[in-house]
């Protein structure tokens, strides 16, 4: 059974989680689920979902400006050039999540992203190729067949911190699926944007 919808200050309902913290409503209404086709944006989100593993999204959202600063705006060509000195520098920066494995994974994944762009033309073309047929009713699940497939393929390519649950959250947030609840006022807006979105 899904949670009761959140009644926002404007008197309209949103997904239940949008009421979980003050920062969530703006993120929910303007970013979450809207289709994204930019390689840097997609790479940023894969990295941030990896950093979020075991933590709350609120923590990551609040630290996102600092993450963007220290990871060169998530330009994966620049991050791919990071070395051990950069790892040590990032481990000393209290503004981000100081987890060696996750920091090293972000750098590794930047290098894998460069390889993937060389092969597929863009990161967007690759991740959107895993878009499933839309469900009429969103499911409250942690993974999906599409997220399992994406996770397996990325791992085969050497990516780290890209498990099926992490990739499901990524697909939700980047609009590859529309998981806004049926009674959420934003759902139809997202669906309109997905309909107009030109798949890469």
UniProtKB/TrEMBL annotation:
The keyword Cytoplasm does not apply. One of its GO terms (molecular function) is DNA-3-methyladenine glycosylase activity. Keywords: Glycosidase, Hydrolase, Metal-binding, Zinc. One of its GO terms (biological process) is base-excision repair. Its EC number is 3.2.2.20. InterPro entries: Adenine_glyco (IPR005019), DNA-3mA_glycosylase (IPR052891), DNA_glycosylase (IPR011257). Pfam families: Adenine_glyco. Gene3D superfamilies: Hypothetical protein, domain 2. Zn(2+) binds at residues 15, 28, 180, 184. This is DNA-3-methyladenine glycosylase I.
